[in-house]
What we know:
The complex is a heterotrimer.
Chain A: H1 2-6, H2 8-17, H3 21-29, H4 32-35, H5 41-63, H6 72-87, H7 93-115, H8 120-140, H9 142-145, H10 170-191, H11 194-204, H12 208-211, H13 216-242, H14 252-265, H15 272-286, H16 292-309, H17 313-321
Chain B: H1 4-32, H2 39-55, H3 61-82, H4 92-114, E1 130-133, E2 136-139, H5 140-162, H6 164-174, H7 176-181, H8 186-212, H9 218-221, H10 223-233, H11 238-258, H12 263-277
Antiparallel strand pairs in B: 1-2
Helix pairs in contact in B: 1-5, 1-6, 1-8, 1-10, 1-11, 2-3, 2-4, 2-8, 3-8, 5-6, 6-8, 10-11, 10-12, 11-12
Chain C: E1 4-15, E2 18-29, E3 33-37, H1 44-52, E4 59-64, E5 67-68, H2 74-79, E6 82-84, H3 97-108, H4 123-135, H5 151-164, E7 169-173, H6 184-192, E8 199-203, H7 207-213, E9 216-221, E10 224-229, H8 231-236, H9 238-243
Parallel strand pairs in C: 3-8, 3-9, 6-7, 7-8
Antiparallel strand pairs in C: 1-2, 1-4, 4-5, 9-10
Amino acid sequence: MMSVSASEPQRYLRAQIRWQPVEALFWVATLLPFVVTPSYLVLASQIAITGLFALSLDLIVGYAGLVSLGHAAYFGFGSYTAGLISKWGWGEPLTGLFIAAAAAGVLGYITSVVIARFRHLALIMITLGFGVLLAEAANSASWLTGGADGLQGMRMWKLLGMFEFDLYGYAGFSYALAVLFLAFLLARRLINSPFGLALRGIRENAVRMPAIGADNPAHIRKIYTIAAVMAGTAGALLAQTTETVSLETLSFQRSADVLVVLILGGAGRLYGGLVGAIVYMVARDQASGVNPQYWYFWIGILLIAVVTFLPNGILGGLARLMPAAGRRA
Amino acid sequence: MASVFGVLFDGLAYGMLLFLLSVGLSVTLGMMNFVNLAHCSFAMLGGYVAVALTSAFGWPFLATLAPAFLAAAILSVVLERLLYRRLYRASELDQCLLTIGIVFVSVAAAAYFFGTMQQSVVLPSYLRGSVSVMNQSFGMYRLFLIIMSLLVTIVLVIALEYTRFGAQVRAAVDNQRMARGLGIDVDRVFAVTFALGSGLAGLGGALAVEIVGLDHAFAFSFLVYVLIVVAVGGLGSIAGSFAAATVLGISDMAGKYYLPEFGAFLIYLVMLVLLMWRPSGLFGKR
Amino acid sequence: MSTLALATRGLDKSFGSLAVATNVTLELPRGERYALIGPNGAGKTTLINLITGMLKPDRGQILLDSQDITPLKPAERVRRGLVRTFQINTLFPDLNALEAVALAVCERERCSGRWWRTLPSYGAAFEEAHTILVSLELAASCFRPTRELAYGQQRLLEIALALAAKPAVLLLDEPAAGVPQAESAELFSVIANLSQDMTVLFIEHDMNVVFRFAKRIIVMVGGRILVEGTPQEIASDPRVREVYLGRGARHA
Lengths: 329, 286, 252
């Protein structure tokens, strides 16, 4: 009797981290664009990149429970770093990606040292402030960034020496999807580790954590750094697959957009950012003929509606309909 | 060309403008802890009211100030009833998202009705030009702005310190639970304060057109500065907003004038340093 | 190891002109059970906050096992064995009891920062958490989110979290607060079964708990320690009676 119940926790844990069939289905479905909509591979790339960016934000917002209004800072930083590396002559994608991600990680660490000390409004302010600060800096340093005209002169070499980034998008989407999947595996592991549990502890009750001996600032610095690496990777992917970088990648618009994407899909559910990205980007593509002002009008309405009626996003709504879909992790 | 006095004067004027735009947010945030990122949408509304009334209807500028205040106040009451009060107990993230949604809608609406061009108001002749004191020339409009803001500040301080309603506001900011326990209708106090604060933002928006311009993105572009003033000054504090707005207004002007390369940053750096020194703001609670 | 598990010397704390703690000096010998009583507003929870580091004292020292811990951060004090529970349930609503206690174990074992290996590799932490929950009769509902637990169970979970940190000194802030008589038997048995090596200080208003478990009682009024003594001494002290006049201290 004792030995049976003693293994209950183990069985529970294994069940929690086991891959669900629907997850496998999801990832297989991500290959569909190659077959079903080959003319939309460029869009598919964009979706994968946005999904990666939203996933990185989910770690901070959905799992650690912190508000960030300046996440585009890491995205844009990764973008510009990858862009500059290419512009200065080194167009190899994988190493460029690696360096850009690492650079974004350093930025993430440095900002996190300050960010981890704040909560509530001050936290919102600091994240907003850092984002705007970096955007202003990039605007001013037009000798480096190209300013409002964007970064010019990027030339990417062939991926793995074989695949050219072209307008058809095969190489681009394969690249973005592969990177997204790897990052996802990493995120999934992290969520299901003791550190993931600690993050959720911070989210659920940041006051209780020190009372059980937790060092909140250290945890926060760590997740910020990891999230920044991931966001920077997404930014670098964008730069490399489009061979251009604009100031928009650092803008508050981008920070707000990725927050919308994440909330739409549902924060704290690992797949929320990905689902949100698909829905958001497809909808935006369909509405692309429309004046951008109108797009933001409807996004505003959507945000208001989601917050008022569907606070846990699409996945949250689904989870309520199908309890078996699993509780929020 | 301009002397230290000139820069100080311009900085003070800008700071007073920041104060008018921020004081409402500071008090309502301090009272209910509700993160209203749409605060500058109310300011924007005030600005557009002033523009519409002066250009389309030929109203004198000063006559547009009251309608700007009222329009913003009324809109805030409507939004508070319909949307805001559902989220008083919601997470900060949800409040941010709701109010960002409102900002998006307001920016799109402004673009739809007024286009994306810079707007301007027509000033009466007595507010144009400058006055010369001791070899310094001071812009009339900026002078007017400073005087106007000081008047508003005095009215606010008197209302807060010497009226019953003001006492209720102070109690609710200090300790909401206790205030309720004393029988103060905190929700009503908040609704009125919110309307007043938003109205002031509308007034500020109308006054701002001449100094910083107005376009459809104002609700976004000015939000950062207002939030900086509120965070640095401390929530719930008029004195804090005043001090922070003045310091930031002057630093921003000085930065842009003396260090044009880095001018835009100075305000953010000042914010960061001040917040790190005093995380709850210069005059913040606790 | 000294004989004094916990001691404070001359703790002072004021908020403006409001003095919430004045010259608080107390000593807790190892393994003893002390109760801290006093009327509402006496500063009992404030004292706990000062001892654990959530509040910084204006003056005074706190000594854990004769080491001065006054400059240490709260989390550091917990790692040294000074653990508290909260008067109002301060739990993790969305985590289940097993996860919450396992998290506390992981923090203690310093493996909460590890993100590369997944939870099944940390089975020992979960087994330990499960064992603690079994001893508190919470095992049956350990997979349900904390917010779904009954109030009495949540109070027990408060204690479980504290126990997971392997305290040398345990500060219980009104453990029985709000727990109806019918459910408090479990709580009392838990307190009774706390390890004899552990030093316990508990704040309580329920005199049943106080007289049953406390070896000595400290009475606090208005931020000061009024008197300290055995239950018999305190029960017959006229000053204490005066403080509680009209409140009707409940006796078994």
